[in-house]
Write a structure and sequence with these properties.
alpha/beta; oxidoreductase activity; NAD(P)-bd_dom_sf
Length: 298
Amino acid sequence: MAAPYVLHMLTPLKHVSPFDVNMAADAGMGPLFPYTGVTPEEVPGITQDAMFSRDPANAVRTGLFIGGRDAVVALDMMEAARKAMFPPFTISVMVDPSGAFTTAGAMVAVVERALRRSRPDGIKGVNVQVFGATGVVGGIAGVIAALAGARVTLVSHRGLSGVEPKAAEFRRRFGVELHCADAPDDAAKEALLADAEVVFGCGRAGLQILSARNLAAAGRLMAAADINAVPPPGIEGVGAKDDGAPLPGGRGVGVGALAIGAVKFRVQHALLMRLAVAEKAEYLDFRHAYDAARRIAG
């Protein structure tokens, strides 16, 4: 009989995400063990306890899932885990804080699918503005879009201090150039949107960050995507089920939260299944989520 797949689920938060637990169970993993309030400094010890307690032949049947709400902290925890390992005791690690890596990968991939209907290069060379960029999904969506060749601006509504340190850290880690802007009011949003070709709405649930009037200022708009499924929409005029539907203003198409979520769900399942059937240790982050999302979105 094959050894069970043991997944250790780590988070710096008070609770492990029930969403992630259910996804792991549906991928055939189990038993599942939560570890809460975990700091990066504690990760090496947890990792080595997990890897040394199994026969090396079953190392590949052991994994760490790292959650939380901060992309940089989650990636630091992943790196701490990797540094704690050595053959033949190497186990897999997947990072997806607040589901942000799989959501961001799905968001960019679904927008690219919509753009390729009229633009073969997809998002490459496009001016992308990320509203709600202070959050974990917005920041990583910006990184993914930049790595795909877009010109990306991270937009804050409460000062550049909310996005400039993040942009500098992502530049250091991933070599991407992310511009930053502050748009605290309608006038600032509309001045900024004049150059936007793609808009990502990554604000918190139930908060409208762009009105129809704001969006009307985007004279070059090709697509607007919104991850908010809770009314009101984060971007007015983008329906939750929209998947490349024409926007009400007659310019560009909309991509809604449910269209993104349908791909995100399949991406997270695919990555967890990749761990479950792997023959060697896997280390999965937002780049793998984006690659999977592109295959799934088609």
